[in-house]
């Protein structure tokens, strides 16, 4: 498995935890779903920079 860009608890979650330093609006992020150990692609809605 490659490193995820964000982590989601389960497939019906509507939030995720970003685990990369920056994201850009509409970036195609790799999201790891803990519940079923699957990875999905999710577009970011905002540009973010972790501080």
Could you outline the blueprint of secondary structure elements for this entry?
Layout: E1 6-8, E2 17-18, E3 22-23, E4 28-33, E5 38-43, E6 48-49
Parallel strand pairs: 1-4
Antiparallel strand pairs: 1-2, 3-6, 4-5
What does this structure look like?
The protein has 51 residues and is mainly beta. The chain has one domain (6-49). Helices cover 0% and strands 41% of the residues. The protein has no helices and six strands. It has strands at 6-8, 17-18, 22-23, 28-33, 38-43, 48-49. A four-stranded mixed beta sheet has the order 2-1-4-5, with no helix packed on it. A two-stranded antiparallel sheet has the order 3-6.
Which strands sit side by side, in order, in the main sheet?
A: 2-1-4-5
**Gap between N and C termini, in Å?**
26 Å
SS elements, strand count: 6
Mean pLDDT rating:
91
Number of domains: 1
Structural class by secondary-structure content = mainly beta
Question: DSSP strand (E) fraction?
Answer: 35-45%
Main beta-sheet strand count, sense and barrel state = 4 strands, mixed
Give a short overview:
This protein is mainly beta. Helix content is 0%, strand content 41%.
List keywords for this structure.
51 residues, mainly beta, four-stranded mixed sheet, two-stranded antiparallel sheet, 41% strand, globular
